[in-house]
Amino acid sequence: MSRPESGGLRAGDVLARRYLLMEPIGRGGMSVIWRTFDQSLQRMVAVKILDGDFGADRELIRREARATARLIHPDAIEVYDYGETVTAQGRLAAYVVMRLLEGRPLSDRLAEGPLPWAEAVTVAGKLATVLAAAHERGIVHRDVTAENVMLTADGAKLLDFGIAAFIGEEGDDRASEYGTPPYVAPERLTGTAADPAGDVYALGVLLFEMLTGGTPYPERTWEEIEQARRDRPPPEPHVPGLPPEVAALCRRCLSHEPRLRPDARQVAAILTAAPTAGRSSPPRRAAAVTVAAVAVLTAGALTWAQLTGVFDPRPGTGLAIGTPSVPVPVTVEPSVSTLVTAEPSPSGARSPGPRTDADPADPADPVGPTDPVGPTASVGEPDDEPADEVADSPAKKTATPMLMVEATHPSSPALALGPSVRRFNALLARGENTGAIRPDVALDLRQVLSNSVCCGRDLSQVRGKIADRHREGAITDAFREALNDQLVVVALAMAR
Question: What residue spans carry the Low complexity bias annotation (predicted)?
């Protein structure tokens, strides 16, 4: 049994007869965020639940939900729902339901060192546009920190409006109670009314940190930082190649006087207009794939075929491998692919199956054409093949999954990443259809793989989730092997 988290909640608990808590994915000073399955809309979401002694102060999370819902911006977190419910343990829980973002906290990235200056300028520019939009709607974030920025495949996203206030709202003691010392503007410690200039100061700190790897005042306590500000003027980042206007802007944002700071719209304009020489998409990390991986891949496909009893005797020109009882050729050809059997659709037409070389369509793409995969395209969205459509098809209910894996010929071009990801998603859909994987787990794997591919990360997180869900009984033994095999295919494509 999983150990209790926020408010005694555990994985498997359901909030408001709708939100199935799966695993905690983040923890702040006041709350715990859960990866959650929305059973009504059949999608993955993030649910933030007040923790510990703050559970009684439900106004905090209600204010966050209202402030965030008031701000509609592609680079800010989206709020779907807010509610209060009594948990199975008899405790009152206030929660807010948000879009689930797959990515990496900026704080984790900064732990590895500073960002290239062009990347830092891009991130800060996006955050400045979000803050400008918030300020124009009368909202002050008041907690702009590296922990509250998520790096996703679509760029940086600003999170956590938990201590947001409306412009002009009277100050309180929450700056020293909840704020992060290096990011809190000097005037906030005196209890001044909420002002956008405080967010600009925090953004200046964050820009300085992304450029140099450290905060402008490295002191840790409130008292030390206040003393450092009195003793030293705001520093300017010194980074080779950094445009001087960006360095000057950073120093202006860090001014001790709020009136001397630019507003967020001016910050966004300057950063957006900064020279873009040297900017590029983050390099895709190549996966370490060896010849042994191809051997494991082929062996796993045979295991799946033996367990399901479905084989594809398609003739080929390469090496054929069979089993003692049934001749099962596994063809070695110039591609790496996972093929699915053709089967009738609800309308009676047959869906695409294995093609021959005479087919006019791309023979390496049995799943069919979809949107391209890359940093600007979404990979494996949950509506590729909704679970309810799968369940409504009698033909699909009785169909048996079949895999055929082909090794890559050294003289042939490597498989494109897009088709390998689509085949992984097609395999998940077939597993849902046959009961080999729970639908909410399949949806989660689609999203995690999409994020890993778009961000160029290795697939260890996907493998780890497959192992965890298998141990929980949400994935069958045979299907776990099939998923791991197809991950090797994706890894081969990522290693191009």
Answer: 339-355, 364-377
| Three-class HEC string of the chain | CCCCCHHHCCCCCEECCCEEEEEEEEECCCEEEEEEEECCCCEEEEEEEECHHHHHCHHHHHHHHHHHHHCCCCCECCEEEEEEEECCCCCEEEEEEEECCCEEEHHHHHCCCCCCHHHHHHHHHHHHHHHHHHHHCCEECCCCCHHHEEEECCEEEECCCCCCEECCCCCCCHHHHHCCHHHCCHHHHHCCCCCHHHHHHHHHHHHHHHHHCCCCCCCCCHHHHHHHHHHCCCCCCCCCCCCHHHHHHHHHHCCCCHHHCCCHHHHHHHHHHCCCCCCCCCCCCCCCCCHHHHHHHHHHHHHHHHHHCCCCCCCCCCCCCCCCCCCCCCCCCCCCCECCCCCECCCCCECCCCCCCCCCCCCCCCCCCCCCCECCECCCCHHHCCHHHHHHCHHHHHCCCCCCECCCCCCCCCCCHHHHHHHHHHHHHHHHHHCCECHHHHHHHHHHHHHHHHHCCCCHHHHHHHHHHHHCCCECHHHHHHHHHHHHHHHHHHCC
Q: Is 143 a catalytic residue?
A: yes
Give 43-78 pLDDT, tens digit per residue: 999 998 876 554 446 666 677 677 776 767 778 888
Cα–Cα distance measured from residue 205 to residue 211, given in angstroms and rounded to the nearest whole number: 10
Question: Token pair 């709708």 is at which residue?
Answer: 18
161: confidence class by pLDDT, cuts 50, 70, 90:
confident
> Is pLDDT of 187 > 70?
yes
Rounded to whole angstroms, the Cα distance separating 279 from 116 reads: 9
Burial class of 26 by CB neighbour count within 10 A (0 to 12, 13 to 18, 19+): middle
Catalytic residue among 13, 51, 143, 485: 143
Q: Which residues of 203-225 are buried (b: 16+ CB within 10 A; e: fewer)?
A: bbbbbbbbbbeebbbeeeeeeeb
Cβ atoms 445, 465 nearer than 8 A: yes
Whole-number Cα distances in Å, 285 to 116, 232, 289: 17, 41, 12
Set out the domains of the chain in order of their start, with CATH numbers: 6-99 (3.30.200.20), 103-273 (1.10.510.10), 291-494 (no CATH)
The structure tokens 């090794």 sit at 407
Average pLDDT over residues 96-110: 92
Q: Could you tell me which residues are annotated as the binding site for ATP?
A: 48
Q: Which amino acid is at 437?
A: I
Binding-site members are: 48
**Looking up tokens 């020279």, which residue turns up?**
275
**Model-level pTM greater than 0.90?**
no
Task: Name the burial class of residue 33, with classes exposed (0-12), middle (13-18) and buried (19+) by CB atoms within 10 angstroms of its CB.
Answer: buried
- Whole-number percent of the chain with pLDDT over 90: 33
